[in-house]
Amino acid sequence: MTNALGLAALLTLAAFPVFGADLATTTFRDHVDSEGNISLPADARDSWVHLGSWVVDDADAPGAGFHDVYTQPGAAQAYRDTGEFADGTVLIKEIRGIESAEMTTGPALWAGEPQVWFVMVKDTQERFDGPHWGNGWGWALFKADAPDVNVSESFENTCKGCHVPAQQTDWVFVEGYPTLE
Questions:
Q1: Around 51, how many Cα atoms within 13 Å sit in the side-chain half-sphere?
Q2: Whole-angstrom distance, CA of residue 151 vs CA of residue 149
Q3: Which residues are CB-contacts of 153 (< 8 A; sequence separation ≥ 6)?
Q4: What is the distance, to the nearest Å, from the Cα of residue 166 to the centroid of all Cα atoms in its chain?
Q5: Distance between CA atoms of 122 and 138, rounded to whole angstroms?
Q6: I need a surface site. Which of 78, 107, 121, 179 has the fewest CB within 10 A?
Q7: What are φ and ψ of residue 163, in 5° steps?
Q8: For residues 95 and 67, is the Cβ–Cβ distance under 8 A?
Q9: Contact 118/159 with Cβ under 8 angstroms?
């Protein structure tokens, strides 16, 4: 009976997401290569935690579109437990076009086709020194027509300018992510 309970407990724990060092091991194995090149995780919308959504409803504004942000389940739990992003946390902001129509409930807006993905990878160990790594994060930008190519020029030129207002919250606009509360 004790062996059956032990096996059941082990199977239950195996079903929980990775935390701490396991999160970093998984991230730096699956989403960052040995030279610090970041890849776009393919399954985020299906199996990661949705942190929140933003809508930039001005077609002329940088980042115009419907923004959905995702992270690994273990990363969301680690943030709720500590108030900080754990080493290996991956944040993906998927920006989609805005669709609209008059519905029976009134004018409606919803997310259209993906346009770009911004990816941030928390690196508390400073594993990489290169143009896409800075301020404790790796930074990448992928376009819908080439989701395997990081088209970001660099952290300084492509990413930092938009994130300066979030510097006090580890460069992340956490106020838009109710799942982290």
A1: 29
A2: 6
A3: 131
A4: 15
A5: 6
A6: 107
A7: -95, -5
A8: yes
A9: yes
Query: In terms of Cα–Cα distance, which of 113, 120, 115 is closest to 92?
Result: 120
For 162, the 3-state DSSP assignment is helix
- 129 and 138 Cβ atoms separated by less than 8 Å: no
What six digits make up the tokens of 170?
A: 């580890």
Q: What is the pLDDT of residues 161-181, one digit of tens each?
A: 999 999 999 999 999 999 999
117 vs 94: CA distance, rounded Å: 4
User: pTM of the entire structure?
Assistant: 0.85
Task: Please write the tens of the pLDDT for every residue from 73-99.
Answer: 999 999 999 999 999 999 999 999 999
* Contact yes or no for 91/70 (Cβ under 8 A): yes
Q: What pLDDT score does 152 carry?
A: 95
Structure tokens at 90: 């991956």
Tokens 């109710």, residue?
178
Type and span of the H or E element at 14:
helix 2-15
